[in-house]
Amino acid sequence: MTDTPVIGVLALQGDVREHLTALAMADALARPVRRPEELAEVDGLVLPGGESTTMSKLAVLFGMMEPLRERVAAGMPVYGTCAGMILLADKILDPRAGQETVGGIEMIVRRNAFGRQNESFEAAVEVDGVPGGPVDGVFIRAPWVESVGAGAEVLATHGGHIVAVRQGNALATSFHPELTGDHRLHAFFTDMVRAVG
Question: Which of 174, 134, 177, 170 is closest to 151 using CA atoms?
Answer without folding.
Answer: 170
